[in-house]
C-alpha cells in the first residue's frame, strides 16, 4: 500500500483534489436552488462518523465557453457530459457523502448598482454571479441542508442553455467577484448553522477558461485589487478553505491560474485539453475526494484489527504432531487460506454488500519460540487497507523457500527458511514493509518425520502487538499520519492459536488484561493439531476471559471451515460506518491473491544472479534475508523447547529433517546467466518525469505518453498572464495530474509504482 503524502491535511489536498475544480464547469440556471432528489446512494448524516464537507463549485460562464473544445463539442457541451459523469461516478458516492454547491460567474455590467443583469443573458446571473444549487434551504426555518443533491445538479445542468445561446461575446470573466461571493456564502452557511464551523470543512473548486478581468469584464487582466488570488489566500489562511483550480482553453498553462491555486494552498492549476480528459478528470476527482477529503475524516472510524497467528512448529504437523503435513493439510496452510484465501476474513460481507476489507485496516503478526533472543515474534505487516495480498504472500511457505535451504516448502524436515521483505523484493514489491515468516521445521534426529524448533511463547506475541498498538496510537493522532486515528478508534485483536503455550499463565494474562483495560479486546480462536487436548482447552478459555474482561468465550475451530466461521462471527460483532465504505479493494491490483499457489511437481529454472526478477507464481526468489528485526544470530544453537529440540543457524534461519511422500515443488538454480522464468504478468513503473514503463509482475495495463487528442483553438495567449513552458520534470497538465494521483488514486496502491 503506497502512502499518498497528501492524505490527512486540508493544507495538502491540492495535488489530489485539484481536478475537482473541473466540476465547476456546470453552469446551472434557475431562480431557486432545486430541492434534493433521491440519490443512488444516500446516507443520512446522523448515521456517519463524520460531518459531510461543503464543496462550492465556481464555474466560469463567460461566452468563451462556447468555443469548440474538439471537433464535435464546445467547452460547454463537454462540461454538461463531464458533470453528469462525475455525479454518477462510484454509484453516486460523492453526492451521497458531501454537500455540493454550484455557482456560475460572468461580469457585472453596472458596478455599484444592485440587481444588474447581463444583457441577453437569461440564465439568472445577477451582479456577476449566481448560486444555482446551494448547500441548504435558506427559506426553511431549520435551514435544512440539501443532502444527496447530485440528481438536482444533473437536472439543472442539462436544462441550462449555453452562455447567451452560443454567442462568442457578451459575458466576461470577473473571477474575484465569484470568489468573494463564495466566501460570503460559506460564511453565511456557517452562521446559519452555528455548530458547524468547527467541524464542517469547506473547499472551493474553480474552473476557468481565460484571464480574470475587472468587474465590468472589459479590462483583462483587471487592476491588482481584482486579482482573485487575494480572496483565495484569505479563504485559505483565515477560513482554512482551500481553492482548487482547473484550467481549460486560454487558461491552460498560464501563471494566473497557478497563482490562484497557490494562494489557495493547493499548488498549481490542472489542465484539461479536451472533452475526454475532462470526463476522465472528473471521475478521478471523485476518487481524489474519497482519498484525501473523506478518507482522512473517515479514518478514525475505521476499526484496526490485528491478527496474531501461532507460528509454532506444530502448525506444520498433522497426526497429533507426529508427521509433517503435506501441502494444504497443515494448520498453517488452512489458517493462511482462512485469512487470505477465497472465503477469507477479508471477504466477509457486512452492511448488505460491503466486503470487510473495504471497511477495516488489518495487520498481521506471528509468534513462536523465545530463542534465540529476543524470540520469534514478528510484525509481518502493520495496519492498513486492502492487506489481503500482503497476508497471502507473508504466510505463503513458497515466499520463504529458497535453495539450497529449501526446495520443497511442504517436504518436511529439515527445512531452512529464508525470510524476506516483500517491499524490497520485486515481485511482489509491496509499498509497505511486509515480512515473510514460517515456523521452524528442524529435524535433528535422523528419523524424525515432524517439524520442530518453534515453540509457543504466546506472551511474546501478545507483548509485541501491545507495544505496536501503543506506538501506532502515538503516531496516528498526528493529522498528517497516513490513516489518522483518535480516542474513539476501535482496536481489536484476533489470536489464532492451538492454545498449548510454553509461557506461564501470568505472562499471558498480563498483556491481555492490560490491552483490554486500555480498550482493546482480544478474540481467541483455538485452531491447530493439538487444540482439543484438555490442557489447550483450559488455556484457551483463560485467554478468552483475560482478553475480554470475562465477556467472551473462545472459539473452537477444528478445521478450516470452523476457522472461517469463527472469523465471520467476530466480524459480525463490529460496528461499521456506512458512509466510510468507499474503498473497493477489488479494483486494486493484487500481485499474488489472484494467482494460484504453486502446484506440486513443478520444476522451474532460476539463476543465482543477485538481481533475480523471477515472476513465477511460487513467489519471489530473493537471496537476501532482509528481516533485520527477528532473524537474530543464535546465541544458543542447541536451545530447546518443551516440544522438540530447536537448532538455528547463525544467520537466524531454521534447519530441519526428513521429507514426506508429498510431491515437491522445486526451484533449480543454474550457473550464471539471467533468470529464465517467463514473466506471466505486467507491472508499471513511473519515472520522475511521469513516464510509464512496463515491468514484470502485475496484471494491470500501462500506457505512457500524452493522451491529448488534439489542440484547442486559441490557447496561445500573449501579454500579461503568459507562462513559459514548464521546466523538465514539473508536474503539469491532466496527464501529470493523473500520475500524481497514482493513476487510480485508490486508497494507497499496494505495490510500488
TrEMBL record:
<feature type="region of interest" description="Disordered">
    <location>
        <begin position="212"/>
        <end position="231"/>
    </location>
</feature>
<feature type="compositionally biased region" description="Low complexity">
    <location>
        <begin position="616"/>
        <end position="697"/>
    </location>
</feature>
<dbReference type="InterPro" id="IPR024038">
    <property type="entry name" value="MYXO-CTERM"/>
</dbReference>
<dbReference type="InterPro" id="IPR036465">
    <property type="entry name" value="vWFA_dom_sf"/>
</dbReference>
<dbReference type="InterPro" id="IPR002035">
    <property type="entry name" value="VWF_A"/>
</dbReference>
<protein>
    <submittedName>
        <fullName>MYXO-CTERM sorting domain-containing protein</fullName>
    </submittedName>
</protein>
<feature type="domain" description="VWFA">
    <location>
        <begin position="54"/>
        <end position="289"/>
    </location>
</feature>
<feature type="domain" description="VWFA">
    <location>
        <begin position="304"/>
        <end position="574"/>
    </location>
</feature>
<feature type="region of interest" description="Disordered">
    <location>
        <begin position="591"/>
        <end position="714"/>
    </location>
</feature>
Amino acid at each position: 500500500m503506497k502512502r499518498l503524502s497528501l492524505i490527512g491535511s486540508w493544507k495538502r489536498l491540492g495535488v489530489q483534489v485539484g481536478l475537482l475544480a473541473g466540476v465547476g464547469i456546470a453552469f446551472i440556471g434557475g431562480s431557486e436552488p432545486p430541492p434534493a432528489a433521491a440519490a443512488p446512494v444516500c446516507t443520512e448524516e446522523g448515521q456517519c462518523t463524520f460531518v459531510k464537507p461543503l464543496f462550492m463549485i465556481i464555474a466560469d460562464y463567460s461566452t468563451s465557453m462556447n468555443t469548440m473544445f474538439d471537433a464535435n463539442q464546445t467547452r460547454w457541451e463537454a462540461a454538461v457530459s463531464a458533470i453528469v459523469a462525475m455525479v454518477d461516478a462510484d454509484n453516486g458516492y460523492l453526492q451521497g457523502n458531501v454537500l455540493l454547491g454550484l455557482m456560475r460567474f460572468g461580469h457585472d455590467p453596472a458596478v455599484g448598482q444592485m440587481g444588474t443583469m447581463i444583457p441577453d443573458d437569461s440564465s439568472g446571473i445577477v451582479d456577476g454571479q449566481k448560486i444555482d444549487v446551494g448547500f441548504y434551504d435558506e427559506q426553511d426555518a431549520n435551514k435544512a441542508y440539501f443532502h444527496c443533491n447530485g440528481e438536482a445538479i444533473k437536472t439543472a445542468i442539462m436544462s441550462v442553455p449555453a452562455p447567451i445561446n452560443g454567442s462568442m461575446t457578451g459575458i466576461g470573466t470577473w473571477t474575484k467577484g465569484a470568489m468573494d461571493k463564495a466566501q460570503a456564502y460559506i460564511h453565511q452557511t456557517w452562521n446559519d448553522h452555528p455548530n458547524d464551523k468547527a467541524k464542517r470543512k469547506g473547499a472551493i473548486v474553480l474552473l476557468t477558461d481565460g484571464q480574470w478581468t475587472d468587474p465590468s469584464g472589459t479590462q483583462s487582466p483587471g487592476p491588482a485589487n481584482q486579482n482573485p488570488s487575494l480572496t483565495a489566500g484569505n479563504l485559505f489562511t483565515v477560513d482554512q478553505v482551500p481553492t482548487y483550480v482547473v484550467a481549460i482553453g486560454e487558461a491552460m498553462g498560464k501563471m494566473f491560474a497557478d497563482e490562484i491555486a497557490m494562494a489557495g494552498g493547493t499548488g498549481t492549476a490542472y489542465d484539461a485539453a479536451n472533452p475526454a480528459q475532462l470526463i476522465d478528470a472528473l471521475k478521478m476527482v471523485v476518487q481524489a475526494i474519497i482519498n484525501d477529503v473523506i478518507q482522512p475524516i473517515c479514518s478514525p472510524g475505521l476499526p484496526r484489527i490485528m491478527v496474531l497467528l501461532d507460528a509454532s512448529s506444530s502448525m506444520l504437523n498433522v497426526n497429533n504432531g507426529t508427521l509433517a503435513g503435506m501441502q494444504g493439510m497443515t494448520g498453517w496452510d488452512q489458517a493462511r487460506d482462512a485469512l487470505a484465501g477465497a472465503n477469507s476474513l477479508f471477504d466477509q460481507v457486512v452492511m448488505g454488500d460491503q466486503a470487510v476489507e473495504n471497511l477495516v485496516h488489518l495487520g498481521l503478526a506471528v509468534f513462536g519460540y523465545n530463542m534465540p533472543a529476543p524470540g520469534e515474534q514478528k510484525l509481518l505487516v502493520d495496519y492498513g487497507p486492502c492487506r489481503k495480498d500482503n497476508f497471502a504472500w507473508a504466510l505463503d511457505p513458497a515466499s520463504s523457500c529458497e535453495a539450497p535451504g529449501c526446495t520443497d516448502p511442504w517436504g518436511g524436515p529439515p527445512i531452512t527458511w529464508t525470510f524476506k521483505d516483500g517491499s524490497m523484493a520485486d515481485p511482489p514489491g509491496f509499498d509497505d514493509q511486509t515480512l515473510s515468516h514460517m515456523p521452524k521445521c528442524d529435524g535433528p534426529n535422523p528419523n524424525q518425520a515432524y517439524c520442530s524448533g518453534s515453540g509457543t511463547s504466546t506472551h511474546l506475541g501478545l507483548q509485541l502487538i501491545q507495544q505496536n498498538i501503543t506506538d501506532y496510537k502515538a503516531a496516528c493522532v498526528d493529522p498528517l499520519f497516513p490513516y489518522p486515528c483518535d480516542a474513539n478508534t476501535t482496536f481489536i485483536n484476533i489470536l489464532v492459536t492451538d492454545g498449548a503455550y510454553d509461557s506461564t499463565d501470568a505472562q499471558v494474562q498480563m498483556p491481555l488484561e492490560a490491552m483490554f483495560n486500555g480498550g482493546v479486546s482480544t478474540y481467541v480462536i483455538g485452531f491447530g493439531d493439538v487444540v482439543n487436548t484438555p490442557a489447550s482447552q483450559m488455556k484457551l478459555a483463560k485467554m478468552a476471559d483475560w482478553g475480554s474482561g470475562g465477556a467472551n468465550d473462545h472459539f473452537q475451530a477444528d478445521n478450516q471451515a470452523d476457522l472461517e466461521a469463527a472469523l465471520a462471527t467476530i466480524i459480525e460483532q463490529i460496528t461499521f460506518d456506512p458512509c466510510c465504505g468507499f474503498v473497493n479493494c477489488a479494483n486494486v491490483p493484487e500481485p499474488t491473491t489472484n494467482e494460484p499457489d504453486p502446484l506440486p511437481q513443478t520444476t522451474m529454472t532460476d539463476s543465482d544472479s543477485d538481481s533475480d526478477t523471477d515472476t513465477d507464481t511460487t513467489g519471489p526468489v530473493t537471496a537476501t534475508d532482509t528481516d533485520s528485526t527477528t532473524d537474530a544470530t543464535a546465541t544458543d544453537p542447541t536451545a530447546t523447547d518443551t516440544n522438540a529440540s530447536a537448532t538455528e543457524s547463525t544467520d537466524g534461519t531454521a534447519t530441519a529433517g526428513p521429507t514426506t511422500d508429498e510431491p515437491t515443488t522445486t526451484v533449480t538454480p543454474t550457473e550464471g546467466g539471467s533468470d529464465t522464468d517467463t514473466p506471466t504478468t505486467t507491472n508499471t513503473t513511473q519515472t520522475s518525469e511521469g513516464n510509464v514503463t512496463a515491468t514484470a509482475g502485475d496484471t494491470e495495463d500501462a500506457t505512457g505518453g500524452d493522451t491529448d487528442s488534439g489542440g484547442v483553438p486559441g490557447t496561445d495567449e500573449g501579454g500579461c498572464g503568459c507562462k513559459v513552458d514548464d521546466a523538465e520534470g514539473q508536474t503539469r497538465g491532466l496527464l501529470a495530474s493523473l500520475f500524481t494521483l497514482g493513476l487510480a488514486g485508490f486508497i494507497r496502491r499496494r505495490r510500488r509504482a
